[in-house]
Specification:
The complex is a heterodimer of chains A (203) and B (111). Chain A is mostly helical and 203 residues long. Chain A is built from 6 helices and no strands. The radius of gyration of chain A is 19 Å and the shape is elongated. Chain B has 111 residues and is an all-alpha fold. In chain B, helix 1 runs antiparallel to helix 2. Chain B is flat and about 65 Å long. Classes of the chains: A mainly alpha (203), B mainly alpha (111).
């Protein structure tokens, strides 16, 4: 199959991410990776729950900041759904535009998290090495933040690299898989805001 | 799709029909997004209100998180579409291992 083949909307396949063998393999391999990521984050959650210190958690967390971060990440998940919607309709420009919005929202989330960590360290002296709870907290939430940072770089790289190419069967699976990764980051965040922040505040 | 012709010309699709189908799909996505936002707000309000007992709040917010994640997986990540048997198998295997780990850590680790 000619991967550089130029398409029109009428010849664009209905599931472009899985039309080629490479695309099918990427799809399967990526879901396998997500299964592994589930285990990775589950073990970090397990460690966090084992080392949790209710008094510290109730003292440092603020509801408004976490709510804002949650809304940013949740919305960025929807905007990447919009990007894939336009990908399926062979509308490259709109897909790029929605990916850009996704990246901006993700970057805002990351900025908020950096502010938050900075605040904990300087206002409360809550540090990575200060206590077992600190280690567990920064490892879990920081690992998620690192995933966000990696996801941002990934999506930006795809956008820049394919800016002049347009959509084809070579890059459609790449965009699709990156959007799956972004949704998975949001899935993890749902558990973080519930288990770490909300449960931390109720004690 | 079984053909492996070099320079294959892909069969033309009915654009109007596909657009309509994709649009309908997108409508479900927006509905599930609104639900997710709604569930999130309920969880935050439940924690913000002091009147509600903690013993009641924790299971409720965990349940809300679970429902929200199901929407995320089955709609946003398309697990409700055909051809997601292997993804489901991989994910649930991961969840199984993860759940056992969490169970072990919250029951036999203490400080």
């Amino acid at each position: 199959m000619n991967l550089d083949e130029k398409f029109t909307e009428a010849t664009w396949p209905s599931s472009p991410e899985q039309t080629t063998l490479e695309g099918k393999n990427k799809f399967l391999g990526f879901w396998f990776f997500l299964g592994g990521e589930t285990v990775l984050f589950a073990t970090l959650f397990a460690t966090y729950l084992a080392l949790k210190d209710d008094k510290v958690a109730a003292e440092i967390f603020a509801l408004d900041l976490v709510f804002l971060a949650t809304m940013l990440l949740l919305t960025s998940s929807l905007t990447s759904v919009y990007a894939m919607y336009h990908m399926k309709n062979y509308d490259f420009k709109r897909m790029q535009a929605w990916l850009l919005i996704t990246v901006i929202l993700g970057a805002a989330f990351l900025a908020l998290e950096i502010y938050e960590f900075n605040h904990y360290v300087h206002e409360y002296g809550f540090t990575f090495t200060g206590s077992a709870y600190g280690s567990a907290f920064y490892t879990l939430v920081g690992f998620h933040g690192a995933h966000v940072a990696f996801g941002l770089m990934w999506i930006i790289t795809l956008m820049v690299r394919n800016a002049k190419r347009g959509l084809n069967l070579y890059n459609a699976p790449k965009f699709y898989v990156a959007s799956l990764y972004w949704h998975f980051i949001d899935v993890v965040w749902v558990f973080i805001f519930t288990v770490v922040y909300l449960m931390g505040m109720v004690g | 799709m079984g053909s492996n012709h070099v320079n294959s010309t892909h069969p033309k699709v009915d654009i109007a029909r596909r657009r309509k189908k994709n649009l309908e799909d997108m409508r479900y996505q927006v509905i599930s997004f609104s639900l997710m936002i709604f569930l999130t707000i309920i969880a935050f309000v439940a924690v913000g209100l002091d009147e509600i007992s903690n013993w009641f709040t924790v299971p409720i917010i965990l349940l809300l998180a679970l429902i929200q994640v199901i929407f995320q997986l089955y709609y946003f990540m398309h697990m409700n579409h055909k051809g997601h048997e292997y993804p489901a198998f991989f994910l649930y295997s991961g969840i199984l291992v993860g759940a056992v780990t969490i169970l072990a850590f919250v029951t036999i680790v203490w400080i």
